[in-house]
Amino acid sequence: MKKIISSIIIALFLTSCVGNDKVILRSSIGKLNKVMVVTKTTDWNGEIGKEIRNSFGELMVGLPQPEPVLKVSQVAPNGFSSMMSAGRNILIISESENEGFSVKTDVYAKPQTIVYVQAKDDTTILKLLQKHKNEIKSIFTESDIKFTQNIFSKDKLDDSAYKTLENLNISFTIPNKFRTVEDTGEFLWLRNHLTSGIAKTGSNNILVYAVPLVDESNIADNIVAVRDSIGKKYIPGSDPETMHMITEKAYTPFTFDAEVDGKKAFETRGKWEVKNDFMAGPFLNYTVVDKKNNRLIIFEGFTYAPSVNKRAFVFELEAIAKSMKIK
After folding, report:
1. Is residue 192 part of a domain?
2. High-pLDDT (> 70) share of the chain, %
3. pTM score > 0.85 for this model?
4. Would you give the distance in Å from CA 252 to the centre of its chain?
5. N or C: which end of the chain has fewer CB within 10 A?
6. Alpha carbon distance 107, 21 (integer Å)
7. Percent helix, strand and coil across the chain, each rounded to 5?
8. Residue 177 is part of which domain span?
């Protein structure tokens, strides 16, 4: 009987250990919008490295200062140590007879995204990188979006406290560092005053509102006109009679197809300015087609942070925008 009990205890202990292996993954490390590339130094200094740097180093649209979509660093395979393997975003390039492109999550740490690119020679690896470059960038960006949203969800604002969100029947994951500027029931303006470094005189801002869906084929063409009308009505400058937010006339915004909460949307990136004043900065606009309710839900984020890079601030707004849920 004692042997049976002992066997049960040992079995339970072993089962517990196996079960916990998946849970005890260490926390990943690494900055947002940065990818560690594991590849031979000779490849990094050659065409493969050039392709990665050119692809990931494309400049983010709509920012006043040139900033890349993703920053990259390189480590040789023999330097890919235990500490290095805890990186949150990793691209591993290797030679193999089995050509492939694959993605795995939470391999050495959590949360973690690893993209594997392998082929028999450098030429084929280069072709795979060129073929999948947009997909690879999107994989890492979306990984960081989810990571950021998870952080925000731990200490978020209560949607029910805002008349506009309640009336529009939508929700967001917004960190509680944002404060209300205006909440009319039809228009919401939240602001986070930046408190560190040279950017401490600036702010990150969120606007949420809706307009009727009139002509679905003409949505993209009207985004600038709609945001300018909102700026004139709700976003004044130091002199409300002569100053208000407009789309910067010297810079044409870029609009891309997007998807938010499973619905068709348009993503617009550009620069804003205050008419008759010197304030300016980048904006990010998501116009979401809500056919069920015959309307367009609009989320806009804009940043004012003079003399500093703004990629991180705009990325934060992107993460909040993509958390939108239409109830």
Report:
1. yes
2. 91
3. yes
4. 22
5. N
6. 12
7. 35, 35, 30
8. 159-326
Summarised one tens digit per residue, pLDDT across range 62-75 is 999 999 999 999 99
CATH classification at residue 177? 3.40.1000.10
| pLDDT, greater one: 183 or 22 | 183
Compute the chain's Rg from CA coordinates: 24
Judged against a pLDDT cut of 60, whether residue 118 lies above it is answered with yes
Last residue of a domain, one of 135, 153, 171: 153
Q: Which 8-state DSSP code applies to residue 155?
A: T
- Whole-number Å distance between alpha carbons of 255 and 269: 7
Tokens of 283: 């904006």
Look at residue 19 in the predicted model and tell me its pLDDT.
44
Instruction: Give 224: exposed, middle or buried? Use CB within 10 Å, 0-12, 13-18, 19+.
Output: middle
Per-residue pLDDT at 6? 40
Other CB atoms within 10 A of residue 55 CB:
19
Residue owning tokens 């890079």: 309
**Does residue 196 sit in the same domain as residue 309?**
yes
Cα 321 to Cα 314: distance, rounded to the nearest angstrom: 10
Question: Sheet containing 89-95: which strands, arranged edge to edge?
Answer: 71-75, 34-38, 89-95, 113-119, 100-105
Which residue type occupies 89? N
For residue 82, being part of any structural domain is answered with: yes
134 within domain boundaries: yes
**Structure confidence at residue 197 (pLDDT):** 56
Token couple for 212: 């009727």
Encoded amino acid at 148, one letter:
T
DSSP string over 62-129: T-SS--BSSEEEEE-GGG--TTGGGBSEEEEEEE-SS-EEEEEESSSEES-EEEEEEESSHHHHHHHH
- Rounded to 5°, the CA angle 320-249-206 comes to 20
Half-sphere exposure for 98 (CA within 13 Å, toward CB): 3
The secondary element (H helix, E strand) that includes residue 10 is helix 2-21
Give the H or E element holding residue 134. Answer: helix 122-153
What mean pLDDT do residues 156-183 have? 97
